[in-house]
Amino acid sequence: MSFTARMAKVFMNLMTGRPAGSAEELLKKARKYNDKNPFVKPSDSKAVYRVEKIRDGSDLLIVRSKKRSDNANCAVLFIFGAGGSMNAWKPHLMMVRNIADKTGAEVFMPLYPLCTDAPVSASVETAYDTYKRIMNDYPPEKVVITGDSSGGACCLALVSMLNRLDEEIIMPKLAILHSPSGVPHNKDAWERMREQSKKDAPGTFSMVEFFPEICAHGEKVPDYMIHPALGDYRNAPETYVYYSADETLASLGRDLEKAFISAGSKVHVHYEPGMVHCYSSYPACKESKTACNEWLDLISKVIGED
């Protein structure tokens, strides 16, 4: 493990802090963060930005590189994470610009309803509306879906929703997920996660315990939106999943892989030792650079295909 990776793990442990005492405590912190970070159209000159409204009224930030051709022939639907309850659009701008700069793709980032005010089903529906919006300009074989943490979980739920709605909407070409979150679907899976959490920062396991309450927001939501192992992955795009081998959520990988294989779909789950949550999302250390170059190359191949 590189020195940078070791320092990142120390920092993550410090940032995670003590376990939360309740779902409401987590939501209170999220609301405080959101009050300080409302969405505004970026004003920097690092990329070309435009903002649209999608069907449910959510803002949709669309980003193109200033360094690449204006003739993008590939779209990336990017769903940011942060527990589905924090409006973490600004910290993810660097990742969005990196995708646009390195691949030339047009990146679509919806500002979805947060679980501070709505059930997780609202964010999945926004992802669905965004995907349909993208299909106005791009064929499905030129579309990639990606997300980190709860954003990765939203991408998985989107695949299930496309199957469940049966509206003959064709799946995207590729999915790239960074430490997709979720809740274990049975007792054995909970025990595996509890054991896995001993390798991770303090407090992460308790966050997962509160996910069902936070995601439901007092309403009944489909099981597949909370438990990735219960998803419907028929006809799913070829999917690449990156976990730190030391993070709590890595315990979800085994059951997720089984669900894909059972559905006859291709999935590649990678576990990198010693890394932090979402290590693969941005090139911050040697190990993350390797992962990042890999998935950026996958997107570039989609662009290069005729």
Question: How would the blueprint of this fold be written?
Answer:
Blueprint: H1 3-16, H2 23-36, E1 48-53, E2 59-64, E3 75-79, H3 93-103, E4 106-110, H4 120-134, E5 143-148, H5 150-165, E6 174-178, H6 187-196, H7 204-216, E7 238-244, H8 253-262, E8 267-272, H9 286-304
Helix pairs in contact: 2-7, 4-5
Describe the structure.
- The protein has an eight-stranded mixed β-sheet, sandwiched between helices.
- Helix content is 40%, strand content 15%.
- A hairpin with a 5-residue loop joins strand 1 and strand 2.
- The longest helix has 19 residues, at 286-304.
- By secondary structure, the chain is an alpha/beta fold.
- Mean pLDDT is 91; it is low at 3-12.
- It has helices at 3-16, 23-36, 93-103, 120-134, 150-165, 187-196, 204-216, 253-262, 286-304, and strands at residues 48-53, 59-64, 75-79, 106-110, 143-148, 174-178, 238-244, 267-272.
- It has one domain: Rossmann fold.
- It contains nine helices and eight strands.
Biggest sheet details: 8 strands, mixed
Termini separation comes to 39 Å
Uncertain spans? 3-12
How much of the sequence is in beta strands?
15-25%
| Overall tally of domains | 1
- Helix percentage: 25-40%
SS class: alpha/beta
Mean pLDDT: 91
Q: Which CATH architecture?
A: 3-Layer(aba) Sandwich
Overall form: globular
- Which strand order do you get reading across the main beta sheet? 1-2-4-3-5-6-7-8
Number of DSSP helical runs: 9
Provide the CATH superfamily. Answer: Alpha/Beta hydrolase fold, catalytic domain
The whole-angstrom Rg is: 18 Å
Helix and strand element order: HHEEEHEHEHEHHEHEH
Number of strands: 8
Per CATH, the class reads Alpha Beta
Q: CATH fold name, please?
A: Rossmann fold
